[in-house]
Structure formats: structure tokens, C-alpha cells
Amino acid sequence: MSNFKLTRRGMMQTGGAAGLVLATPTLLTAGSHSGYTNAPTGSTVKIGFNVPQTGPYSEEGLDELRAQELAVEHLNGIGDGGMLNTFSSKALDGTGILGKKVEFVTGDTQTKSDAARASAKSMIEKDQVVMINGGSSSGVAIAVQGLCQEAGIIFMAGLTHSNDTTGKDRKANGFRHFFNGYMSGAALAPILGANLGTDRRAYHLTSDYTWGWTQSESMIASTEAMGWTTAENVLTPVGAGDFSSYIAQVLGSGADTLILNHYGGDMINSLTQSVQFGLRDKVVNGKNFEIVVPLYSELMAAGAGENIKGVYGSMNWNWQLQDAGTAAFVKSFGEKYGRPPSNSAHTCYVQTLLYADAVTRGGSFNPCAVGEALEDFEFDGMGNGPTLYRGADHQCFKDVLVMKGAENPTNAYDTLEIVEVTPRAQVEYPSNHPMFGGDEASVGSCNPGA
Amino acid sequence: MDAIFLQILNGLDKGSAYALIALGLTLIFGTLGVVNFAHGALFMIGAFCAVTLQKLFGLSYQVIDETQTDFLGKPLKVDVPYLESWLGPEFSAALMDWSVPLAILFSIPIMVVVGFVMERGLIKHFYNRPHADQILVTFGLAIVLQEIVKYFYGANPIQTGAPEMFKGALDFGVLIGFEPNKVIYPVWRLVYFLFSAVVIGGVFAFLRFTTFGMVVRAGMADRETVGLLGINIDKRFTIMFGLAAAVTGMAGVMYTPILAPNYHMGMDFLVLSFVVVVVGGMGSLPGAVLAGFLLGILQSFASMNEVKAILPGIDQIVIYLVAIIILLTRPRGLMGKRGVMEE
Amino acid sequence: MILGLNRRDTRFLIIVILLTLFTPFLMQPFSEGSALAQFNGGYPDLMAKVAIFGIFAMGFNILFGLTGYLSFGHAAFLGVGSYSAVWMFKLLTLNVFPALIFAVIISGLFALIIGYISLQRSGIYFSILTLAMAEMSYRLAYSVLTPITNGETGLQIRATDPRIFDSATSSGSPNLFGLELSSSFKWEVLNHVFTFNVGFYFCAFVAIIMFYLTLRIFRSPFGLILRAVKSNQTRLNYTGHNTRPYTLAAFVISGLYAGLAGGLLALMDPLAGAERMVWTASGEVVIMTILGGAGTLLGPVLGAGAIKYLEIIFAKINENVLHGWFGFLPDGLEDFIVFILSRFTGEGWHLTLGLMFMGIIIFLPGGLVQGGQRIAAKFRRKAPNDDDDSEHHPKSTSHVAE
């Protein structure tokens, strides 16, 4: 170390230079005068689709992207209009938004908060978008939601299921159409009770991060309320791949039900491996051993293959629903891409339309006006029945689907079947519910940015 | 007692997977001295050999069935596998069922070729380059291979099941005197354990008892002298590379029923396999195998609820913690050789 | 001799300063609305990221480029720096200085501990020790340490934070004595929009200081010893030098750079997530350094710029954009070209990344800096080894079966 020399003179000169630079920036001012961030000027308006395009969730991201492109087409009057025909609000007429043609930019979240925010920032700073939609993970959604709040644009969340997104991390500029962990628990519990009995002993394997925790908390609360007991709640590392050392302990605990609070690849692996351990062939406490996966997605179901047969779970929406909105969406999506849409595609499509509609009704792209138009907005015809965008936490309230792995799927897309459409009233909760940040949580005030 | 026995069994099973994955890496990295970041990609390609074979068996032509409709209300296109129409439903179903074990035969030539091409086409030119350059070029290669697989198979995991007779679980405990339903273990994992024992034994025997193995071992010790003796050591190193790729690929094929393969799976195993090889000690095959089993067993124990209750999160870090402790107490890992990649 | 530098280094430093100051122009070469505007990168976040990761890579280069010790866990220091900075924002004030100072101190301490342990070993054993420790930090930050790190969601500032030194009315984002880092000045001229952002210039200023420090370290006797460690540590030991303090100093210095970079990341965007510490993040800085040219002064910064630019800009080129570019071609040809190109952009940007790694390291063993030198040499019709810095190229060493 003794040879390491920085001259004192050099340091002082550098310090002087530092002072000089610090004194100058008062010259810089904000450049926008429109009253809100990225006010569109020409005949077009840009929105941003920020989805995972690389990494394990990229398939989900691509499906979201397909739906978003379709939504833009419908907004611009191309194609058959999809859900615009069934949407209860008739403000949109296929001429873009407020007469401006809709353009979009895309970005890759990589399912990492940092990358997602970098991508979102480039959309805001470089492409001047007024709204960002998408995402396939709660951590990313919360991170990007926070960024949009600071920047003064609207964030329409894609697939994010953690209670926190509209719970303790709720933001005035962020809106979630997708359902959440609490709703999964509330919708599943009665069905589980009716089909599996109300005296079961459940063993939870839970992904060791915030989504997993809120999911297991919700499931434990709702199943215990109807009489189940909880044998154990074991936290497993995210992306563990091999869950055998956790699954091996399940039978020894005397539990007769395994609840897998896992998502994506983790869920596919833990479910497959649980089946390999022969859990579903066992009879414990005089009951058939059962597995429950609180949050399903079509891609997970496809990845898990025949292992999901008879396994209960919940979903936000499914293409097999029979209402007019679903039929219209499935038709236009299916004709364009040759496959039925996933529920993450649905939520992104609906979010894009809802945003456009709110802008039109509010008469401005100003996020405060959009927020006001969306808050406590009641609508129908989007596939989930009558839906409320609650103003207090910006969470949508609508029917929730309880699903089960199909016994005899006829093709790659009907591996899940709808068991019940749980009515909205059953999954509602007060906005100051303790799982959602309690009384402290508040969306705060909207930020129009510049 | 049965809980502990179960975790030992699980640890051996995990360990056999770690050891098998690390075995290929230690042939390339521990002995040839090439930091091969594409090792995970080899594992992944192996797994996708199984997927590919399953897809090949399922190759279909479409027949329009007017009586059924698809989700858009149009006549349903029914896929009829070529195999089914050629060989009859029973035999083709049996082939489909056994696609994973059959994929081992299928994967060996493919992996050997992949290994040869990789070594001759790329790695050969990097033997005398700094390790950092090897990392960059093999990491780049791994990304390219991943993206190619992703293009053909998508990013979603693909279920490739074990044959029907190996599905389900065996009440292993009853065989050795425990009560029923106490020690239950999936059959395929036991198969995997036996398989890796055979492969590991085979590789050892090959290097130990054949002339080829002797020359390679001599080449590792002193490449120049062996070259001076008129032996084409380069060619043998190429073959070693092919061997390593084949071993890694087989590990991947056999792992598919346990872990539905996706294009990203190689990266998830990359760090782990490097840790296993280094903990075992550079240049030592037995070291890598030993380290694989040791880390597997310790991880199983760390996952026990009783242990997690005392040390929350220990199962997340136990492998790294053990690696640190071993490397600090034994300078060259468990059985490392002096001077291999210590500069 | 200005600032203790000889004439050539002074010239080099001035060029770097000028390049940095004019980044908003250099990265915004294409006019708005033109087809190539997609390639403009002159917006605040990307420019600042280049500066920040430039600092990170410069610091990493002091350890790796000079001593040859390949750490695979440097992202841990970046993460610790970010967490420390955000905690200062939450507890004390949104002014940037306490956050930066605290970030540097904490990551320095962290680097001292990890460095002391890891440097017990050398070569690959050292690399795995650093990797293991960083991976442990990441895993714990993601799960068990959530009360401190806020887990997967990442540590954020909230309106309810105590912030004991800030008045209730102060702004809600990081600032320099009241001047918000996010404020920008936009200059529209000749159909170009140039953005001058306070945060970027702050990062750029810090980057220039760090570049100057790096230059001094490279030219100092200390730097010479570090290079000697790389070329032959044993011989150095025989001449009576105990190398451990030097390598530890280099490790801690590079940890300080990483902590500073982490702090700056938190300033530009007050969120600290655990993913910043995962092994691929550590790998990224290794790759930035090698890609640019390990052991060179400017290389790591170039490498950082190239990767960050590619990650954002290429990922944003979707098929729609491609169709826009090639719309003038006949339909069949257009679709074909779009199909081919879209394999390398948008969701396929990783493929471009992988091919770039391979291409550069195969054809330019010295990284981007060597590429620049070759071009410069072509223009000047001189031998390439006549340029700045050529003496620090990584010396190839043979190690097969040693």
C-alpha cells in the first residue's frame, strides 16, 4: 500500500472542479409545458408494452404481446373490433384514442425489476409513451408501477397476482385488472370444501418471495376459516428445480392435501415431482391425497402435462367461458394467431382497451383525468361479467374462475376445465384489509409528471 | 429415523445428479483446463434430444374431422402420427412411452458430434488464450445454442415423462424394514441413481483400464512430452471432448422426467456444476463425484423442516456455505491437484 | 504535468472528458422521425447507465485487468451499494451525498471481508469463493433478509419514510441540494431533440473523477505491482514482496467502485433489488470488461456501453418496426427479410448478444479497444501497437494441462 500515491494537490484540484460543476446546474429547467408527462403532440399517441421477451416467462410475454397488438388494431379500427363490440362503454369508435392513431413500442422486462425499469424508462424518456402495460411477475409490476408513478404516466398492470400490487404498494397511477392471492383463496376455499371435505390437513410448499408469501397467507386464512388445519408452511427457494427434498417430507407430516404456492416453472416441477412421489395415489386420514395449485395459467398447465388432471386451481379468465365478450375476443385472437388466448393475454388486452376508454371518457391523456375516469368505473362485456375498478386501491372486482385439470383433454388448449365461476361478491374485501396494507395503505395522489 | 433415512436417500439421489452433471464438466474444465460456460448448454441439448425424439415419434399429418369443431367453430384438424399409421397404435404408443430411455441411444451420436464440432471449430483455438476469453466465447456460444433451441421449442417447459413402468413411487422403506408409507421414493429417481452409478463407473474404467485413457491421463500430466513421443494428443483431447459432451447429454436426457426441460435449464445448472467441480478439486474425477454426493446430501438435510426451523433459509445457501468452508480448509478442494488453474 | 499526469495521459483525459460531456449529442445522431431514430440512445436513463456501469467495470478492471484475479461476485458490492443508498434516502435525506458516501463505505467494508476471505486462495478457487459469497448474499437478500431488502419487490422510498433531515415539503426524488436529478433541459434543433439531464451529468462527473483515479492507479507504482502479480506472483513473492496486501487493496478498491456505481444506480432510480447481486450480474461486469478490453483504460467503459445499449435498443426493435423499415420492398422479400432480422432483434436480442461475444473475442482478442486501434491504425497507416495503452493488453498465457 505504501507505494500508492495520490498527490494532495491533485485531490484539491479535483475538489475545486467538483464545486464548479455543482454550482452550474441551476441553469437547467424542465422542458415540458403541457401540464403532464409526454403529452402527445401530433396525430399519433404512443403506448408502451413492457413484457418478458427473454427468460422463463417469455412465452407468456409473447402471448401478452400478441393480445396487445390486437388491442391496438381494434383501437385503430383494423379487424373485427373484438371486445369493442361487447364492451358496455361505447366511447371508443375505432378511430384511435381521441382521434389520435395509436402506435406502440415494445420492450423486454427479462422478468427482472432492474431491466423492466430500464426498459420502461426508455419508453418514457425516449419514446414519450403515455401509458405502459404488461408484465408477468409481481416484483416487476410493483417496480414498474412505482416508476410510472414517479414519472407521471399511467401503468396498466398485466399478470401480477400478489396482494401487494394493489395492497401496500398501491399507487395512484397504477391499475390492476388481474385478480390477486386473496381472491384465489376466497374463490377456491368453498369449492375445495364442497369437493374435498372441510376437515383436511394441508401442507403448503411456498415460493420464498413476496408473491409466495401473500399467496400462502391468503390460502391458509381462507382454508382455515372453513375448518382445514395447516400442517406446515415450508418455504422453498425460487427456481429450485428439484423439490424432492421438500416433497419427501410431506407424507411424514400426516397431511392429506398439498398446496403448491408456486408459479411458472417452479409449479410445473413441484407438481410433476409430487405426482412422481406417488402422493396422489395415497390415502391419508381415510381420504384420498389431493394437490391444489392456487394460481393456474394455460402455459403452466401445458408444461405440467397430464400431471394436472383433477388438480384444483384458480384463474382470472379462460377462453372457454361462454359470454359474448369472451367469444368476440377468442374469435379475433384465434383468427389472427391460430390459437386461443391465455388469461395473461386477456388481461393485457382488456387493460389496453380500458385505458383507451378512460382517456376518451375523461377527454385527456392527462394521467389524473384518466385515473379519475377509471376510478369506481363499472363496466361489462369484457369476459368477466360486471366489473368494478375500485377507486380506493385501483383493483378490479369481478368473477373469479375455479379450474380443474381436465381428465380427458381433446387438444392442447383445453387441459383445464372450468369448475365454477365464483361470483364477485364472494371475493370482495374492504380496501383496508390487513392483507392489503391495512389502514395505512393509500394510493396517494395522482402524479401528472412535468 | 425414517425421516433421516429418507433424506439420505434423497441426498444420494440429488448427489448422483450433481455428480453426473459435474463429471462431464470436470473432463473438460478440470483436466483440459478450458473454462467451459457452454457446459450447461450441453446438458440442455441432451435434454432436448429426448424432447426431439418424442416429437419425432409424434410427427403427424392432419386429417380434417367434420364431426368435431375446434375452438373457433371450424372443423377440427386431427393430428394422426405417421408412426401410428405405419406401425399400428400399440407399437407406436410403446415407442412413445419409452422415448426417454430410447433418447439415450439417440443422444450419444448427436452429443459426440456436438462435442467434436465445438472442440474442433471453436475451443481448439482457445486452449492458449486466457481463461477470461474462454469464458466469454463459451458463454456467447451457450446463449446462441439456447436461442436456437428457444426458436424451435419455445420457452415453456416441455413435459417428457418416464415410461409407464417407471412412473409412480416405490415403498422403499418396506424393503428394508420400515413401516409402510414411511420411506416412499419415485422409481425413476432410483433408476437415475443406478444409471449415474453405471455411467460414472464406466468413465472411470475407460480412463483407468484402456490405452486411450492412459494416454489421455498422461497428456493431462504433460501434454508436451506425450506429443514428443509421437502420440497425437490433440486428437485424443477431441475425443475426450466428445466423451464429455456425451456424458453430459445423457445426464440431461435422463433428467427430463424429473425436470421438464426448457431452453434455460442449462444456465440454472451451470453455477452448480462449477461449484461441484471446484469443491471436488481441479483435475480430480473422484473429487468431483465425491463433492457431488456430499453437496447433495448436505442440501437434503438442510431442507428438513427441523433444520430450517433453527436456521431459516439455510437450504438456500448451504451449497455455497459448504463450498466456502471446504475451500478455506482444504486449499485445493477435496482432492485437487497442485497447480491446476491456480495461477 | 497537470494533475500528476504526463502529456499523453492529459490529452487522453481531456478527450474522455469531452466525449462524456457531449454524450447527449453523440448518442443521438439520428433526427427524430427518421427510420434510424430507433437507434438513438441519447436519453437520460441509458446515458447514465453507461456512465454507471462504466464506473463499475473500471473498478472491476483494476482487480481483474491488473492482477488477473477473476472475481465472479462483484455484483454483490453493487447491490450492497444500492441498498445502502436507498436506506440513507429512507432514513436521512434524499440529498445524494449521504447516500453515496454511505454506499461507498458499506460496500468497502463488505469488500474487505469478502476479499480477505477469498484471497486466501488464487486462480479458480478464488473465483468460486467470490461466486459463492455473492450468491449467498443474493439468495439471502431475496428471501430471509426481506425486512432489510424488501425481497423480490426491491427496496423503495415511500412517503411514510422518516427522512429526518428533510423538511416535509421537500421533493420526493433524489436531489443535489434541492435540484432534482430527474430534471432535464431539452434542446430541439435541426429536427433533433437533445436532452441534458442533471442526473446524467452528475453520474458523468463522478465517472470522469473515477476515470482520472483509475488513470492514476494504472500509472502508479502500486499499479505496477498489481501488474507484476498478474505476470508472475511467485517471482514477486521471492523478491520479498508480500502480495496479499496489494491484491486485497485492489479488491477493496474495485469493491468501492462497485459500491459507488450501486449508489449511483439508486440515485438515478431509487429502487434496489436483489437481482442486482445474482451471478449473471457478476458475469455481466466480467463480460463488459473482457468485451471492451481487459487491462485497458477505456475498454471496460466501452464494453459497458455496448452491452447496455444492445440490451435496451435491440430488444425494442419488434417486427412492426422492421416492417416499417422494409415496407418499400416487395411483399415476399419484405417478409423474408423481416423474418430473418427479427430473429436477432426484439425477443431474439440475446442471439445478437451471444454472436457479438463470440465474434469479438474470436476476431479481436483485445476486445473493442483493439478494434478501435486497428481502425485508427488503418487511418493513420501506423502499426497498431503505437497507440495509447497498448502495453496493457492481456498477455495470453498458456495453461492447458500445466
Please provide a written account of the structure.
The complex is a heterotrimer of chains A (450), B (343) and C (402). Chain A has helices at 8-23, 58-75, 113-125, 138-151, 181-196, 210-225, 244-247, 264-276, 298-304, 324-337, 343-362, 367-374, 424-427, and strands at residues 44-51, 101-108, 131-134, 154-157, 174-176, 201-207, 229-236, 257-261, 283-284, 287-288, 290-295, 312-315, 377-379, 387-389, 396-397, 400-405, 416-422. With 450 residues, chain A is of the alpha/beta class. In chain A, strands 7-6-8-11-12-16-17 form a seven-stranded mixed β-sheet, sandwiched between helices. In chain A, helix 3 (113-125) packs parallel to helix 4 (138-151) and helix 11 crosses helix 12 (367-374). Chain B is mainly alpha-helical and 343 residues long. Chain B is built from 15 helices and four strands. Chain B has helices at 2-31, 39-57, 82-87, 89-97, 99-121, 131-153, 172-175, 187-209, 211-221, 223-228, 233-255, 265-280, 285-302, 305-310, 314-329; strands at 60-69, 75-81, 169-171, 184-186. Chain C has a domain at 7-283. Chain C has helices at 7-21, 23-26, 44-67, 75-91, 96-118, 123-142, 146-149, 198-219, 221-238, 244-268, 279-292, 299-313, 319-325, 331-342, 349-363, 368-380; strands spanning 155-156, 175-176, 179-180, 184-189, 192-197, 271-272. In chain C, the strands form three sheets. In chain C, strands 1-6 form a two-stranded antiparallel ribbon. In chain C, strands 2-3 form a two-stranded antiparallel ribbon. In chain C, a hairpin with a 2-residue loop joins strand 4 and strand 5 (192-197). In chain C, helix 3 (44-67) runs parallel beside helix 8, helix 8 packs antiparallel against helix 10 and helix 11 (279-292) crosses helix 12 (299-313). The chains are: A alpha/beta (450), B mainly alpha (343), C mainly alpha (402). At the A-C interface, helix 1, helix 2, strand 2, helix 3 and helix 4 of A face helix 3, strand 4, helix 8, helix 9 and helix 10 of C.
Features:
heterotrimer, B: 343 residues, mainly alpha, two-stranded antiparallel sheet, 15 helices, 4 strands, globular, C: 402 residues, two-stranded antiparallel ribbon, 16 helices, 6 strands, disordered C terminus
Question: In a nutshell, what does this entry contain?
Answer:
The complex is a heterotrimer of chains A (450), B (343) and C (402). Chain A is α/β, with parallel strands linked by helices. Chain A has helices spanning 8-23, 58-75, 113-125, 138-151, 181-196, 210-225, 244-247, 264-276, 298-304, 324-337, 343-362, 367-374, 424-427; strands at 44-51, 101-108, 131-134, 154-157, 174-176, 201-207, 229-236, 257-261, 283-284, 287-288, 290-295, 312-315, 377-379, 387-389, 396-397, 400-405, 416-422.
